[in-house]
């Protein structure tokens, strides 16, 4: 799953850079979205939209909990779980 | 505490009491239920992701700022006791004079009102205050505060929850502005997905246009999204369609993005008799719609202040006609082209600025400036106020006067939020609320940046 993790992290970085309108350093799983990357609550919807664009997946915002947005690692794990639920085994994300 | 102590004959608290209960020396029991919008918004259609609750342990402890509002005869209901060194610091400045009553058990994720409702010891103490001149004065009134008033045997100093919820909607604000002929930001009220689609097609069509979509009962940056191209508009509609009920109901306003010189916030009190009294106007510091502080006095011309005063009269009369009485804070905007938009939204409740009113009257001299602000910190353990005092050193505002020139330095006006999140779950996130006071704007900004007073 290392490749998939890398792809998800890259997609998240792309989405975060679009929302935050700035280049970001390499994302590590421990980075906190709010306090380290300065994401704010107004940007959550924009981030969800950008993730839908980059990964082609549909996120149900009503399923989200604040823990999902705690760290980069928590959000990538959530995205991966959406992707594996959406797609037959052995397929990568739809681009 | 069974009898009233002598009350000041004037000051913000006395004016508020005179307007709301007809007695400037009444006793108010302040319950500072921040983010009451969460309760008002229950069951209402919302935007995607806005049900997420971030930092609620910190938000719920902003309630401590209420200690700065109380006069000697007043009571403040708190989720936890004030740090004794912090209480001593405030007392020495004359900044906090009321009595504090704490809930029986502080549950960090719960509002002060819900904690109070689960507190038999506190409720008994509140019932003992009932003397016909003691009133419950929440930040804002929802069904929770109505239940608390009943359980405490104290009348509310404001109208019922149904009225409060209605007049706090951004839809109410926008319709009032349109009906009253105040200068409105181009936009629309949307109660259905079809109306939202129409509004986005109108206001997002031009090249380079941006709109902001705001949930009617959203708060503090949640429940709003900025859209800068039609593709994003279509995407938002799809997200909403996936979750909207069969009736396609939404509850939002759409407004074109206006480049600004300044955000403004003004306060006035609507009396029980419908009279309107203007209180303050301040520059509001915001980032992406999230409140970051206030600067006062604002850099406005006298005619601009007069325009806001006139708007307050118009809005106050409409609030009174809707059955509201109490404090109202209105967000306004001074556009980059000089156009003054006097009402973006009405918050018919206390605002952060309200909690500065008493201390501003008490401490800050005419001609001085103040910057209400926050310091975000990463505490890795619980800190006492004495450590903050030591860290600030000479920057701390520690005396009310400098030989007749007024005070200078950093006044901490909420300490509980430094430790709230750490105490709730060990996460290193904390915040101090402060008011930097100085001789002018440059002076207070210098203090905010951590440079020692000259």
UniProtKB/TrEMBL annotation, chain A:
<dbReference type="InterPro" id="IPR036736">
    <property type="entry name" value="ACP-like_sf"/>
</dbReference>
<dbReference type="Pfam" id="PF00550">
    <property type="entry name" value="PP-binding"/>
</dbReference>
<protein>
    <submittedName>
        <fullName>Acyl carrier protein</fullName>
    </submittedName>
</protein>
<dbReference type="InterPro" id="IPR009081">
    <property type="entry name" value="PP-bd_ACP"/>
</dbReference>
<feature type="domain" description="Carrier">
    <location>
        <begin position="6"/>
        <end position="83"/>
    </location>
</feature>
């Amino acid at each position: 799953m290392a490749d998939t993790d890398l792809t998800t992290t890259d997609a998240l970085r792309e989405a975060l850079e679009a929302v935050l309108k700035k280049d970001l350093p390499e994302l590590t799983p421990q980075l906190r979205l709010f306090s380290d990357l300065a994401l704010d609550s107004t940007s959550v919807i924009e981030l969800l939209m950008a993730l839908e664009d980059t990964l082609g997946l549909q996120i149900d915002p009503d399923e989200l909990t604040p823990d999902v947005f705690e760290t980069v690692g928590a959000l990538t794990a959530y995205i991966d779980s959406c992707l594996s639920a959406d797609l037959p085994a052995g397929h990568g994300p739809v681009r | 505490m069974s009898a009233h102590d002598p009350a000041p004959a004037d000051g913000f608290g006395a004016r508020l009491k005179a307007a709301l209960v007809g007695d400037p020396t009444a006793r108010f029991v302040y319950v500072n239920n921040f983010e009451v919008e969460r309760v008002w918004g229950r069951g209402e259609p919302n935007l995607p992701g806005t049900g997420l609750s971030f930092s609620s342990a910190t938000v719920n402890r902003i309630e401590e700022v209420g200690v700065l509002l109380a006069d000697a005869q007043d009571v403040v209901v708190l989720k936890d006791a004030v740090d004794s060194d912090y209480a001593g610091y405030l007392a020495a400045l004359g900044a906090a004079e009321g009595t504090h009553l704490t809930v029986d058990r502080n549950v960090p994720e719960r509002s002060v009102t819900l904690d109070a409702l689960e507190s038999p010891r506190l409720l008994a103490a509140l019932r003992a205050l009932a003397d016909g001149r003691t009133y419950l004065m929440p930040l804002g009134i929802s069904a929770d505060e109505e239940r608390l008033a009943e359980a405490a045997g104290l009348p509310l100093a404001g109208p019922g929850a149904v009225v409060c919820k209605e007049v706090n909607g951004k839809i109410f604000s926008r319709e009032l502005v349109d009906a009253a002929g105040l200068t409105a930001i181009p936009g629309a009220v949307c109660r259905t997905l079809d109306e939202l689609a129409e509004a986005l097609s109108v206001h997002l069509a031009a090249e380079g246009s941006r709109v902001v979509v705001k949930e009617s009962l959203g708060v503090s940056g949640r429940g709003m999204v900025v859209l800068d191209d039609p593709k994003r508009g279509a995407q938002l509609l799809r997200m909403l369609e996936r979750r909207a009920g069969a009736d396609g109901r939404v509850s939002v306003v759409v407004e074109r993005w206006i480049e600004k010189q300044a955000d403004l916030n003004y306060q006035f009190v609507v009396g029980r008799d419908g009279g309107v009294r203007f209180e303050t106007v301040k520059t509001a510091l915001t980032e992406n719609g999230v409140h970051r502080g206030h600067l006062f006095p604002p850099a406005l011309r006298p005619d601009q202040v007069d325009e806001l005063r006139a708007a307050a009269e118009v809005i106050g009369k409409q609030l009174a006609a809707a059955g509201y009485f109490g404090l109202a804070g209105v967000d306004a905007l001074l556009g980059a082209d000089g156009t003054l938009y006097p009402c973006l939204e009405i918050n018919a409740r206390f605002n952060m600025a309200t909690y500065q009113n008493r201390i501003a009257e008490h401490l800050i001299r005419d001609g001085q400036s103040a910057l209400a602000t926050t310091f975000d910190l990463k505490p890795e353990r619980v800190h006492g106020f004495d450590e903050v005092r030591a860290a600030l050193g000479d920057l701390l505002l520690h005396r009310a006067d400098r030989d007749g020139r007024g005070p200078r330095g950093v006044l901490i006006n909420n300490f509980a939020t430094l430790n709230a999140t750490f105490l709730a779950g060990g996460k290193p996130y904390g915040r101090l609320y402060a008011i930097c006071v100085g001789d002018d704007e440059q002076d207070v900004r210098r203090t905010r940046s951590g440079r020692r007073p000259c």
